[in-house]
Amino acid sequence: SVLSQDHPALNYCVVDGGSDDGSREVIKRQESRLFAWCSEKDAGQYDAINKGFSMAAGEVMGWLNSDDLHCPWTLAVVDEIFSSFPDVEWLTTLFPLRWDSCGRAVYSGAHKGYSRGGFLQREHLPGVDGFFSAAIQQESTFWRRSLWDRCGGYVSTAHGSAGDYELWCRFMKSAELCAVSVPLAGFRRHGNQQTANNLPDYVRWADKAHSNHFPESGQSAFYKRAKPLASHLADTKVRNLASGLGLLHPASIIQRNGENTGWERWCRWV
């Protein structure tokens, strides 16, 4: 799903943990199309991801786990948006996909947006005790190298399976997350995958990362009760009141313009 897009400026680095299942041979068949690759023992998933990023030289970054898929237009859309909006530092989708074991799209989320205020309130943390809007889908998230470097230049290996969420915590401290109104990638659901089979473990590690970065954050009893109502408000005056009470937060949205000639950016209260 990456090489088939034939993107002209792709730095595609593949990291394999020394598999003996034929993976190395598959990689070698594509070697001429890769920027770099290795197949060797590592200290786990996020150690391998850090190794891959250390090989890459591109200015826009992201990673795809071995069982997930990008959409055919992903790299072109991401390239256009980062080129069109120099102030956008990281980007995700409003429509995260889920694939089945055959690679068919069988579900699409439809989210209103991702806000820093909502993130601080744990709205984007799966398994939260309170109001939950949407998780940030890792395979649909991309960022500039300047943000990566400013936030330490690594994915944490000390937060179990939630190294991605810990990275989002650092990014959120430094830059606004923008969301584009087209699907970018999907999470493939099958019987042997790590995340789906260990979701409670992921939630526990993500919650720990959130508490480490934002120790004073959390949802009050009022927030838990009032936020679900506020999120459906349409009247401008009432919406303004809800935002003044800290129930609604600004989210940055990017979508195609009406003439379909480019992208436009605007704010939505979520």
Topology diagram in text:
Layout: E1 13-16, H1 23-29, E2 36-39, H2 45-55, E3 60-61, E4 69-70, H3 74-84, E5 90-93, E6 97-99, E7 105-108, H4 116-120, E8 142-144, H5 145-150, H6 163-174, E9 177-180, E10 185-188, H7 194-197, H8 199-213, H9 221-230, H10 236-244, E11 250-256, E12 263-269
Parallel strand pairs: 1-2, 5-9, 6-10, 9-11
Antiparallel strand pairs: 3-8, 4-10, 5-8, 6-7, 11-12
Helix pairs in contact: 6-8
What is the H/E string?
Answer: EHEHEEHEEEHEHHEEHHHHEE
Q: What are the segments in which pLDDT stays under 50 over at least 5 consecutive residues?
A: none
Biggest sheet details:
6 strands, mixed
> In percent, how helical is the residue content?
25-40%
Average pLDDT taken over every residue: 93
Give the overall form.
globular
Strand order of the largest sheet: 3-8-5-9-11-12
Quote the distance from N terminus to C terminus: 32 Å
Radius of gyration: 19 Å
Overall strand count: 12
Would you tell me the structural class of the helices and strands? Answer: alpha/beta
Proportion of strand residues: 15-25%
Per DSSP, the total helix count is 10
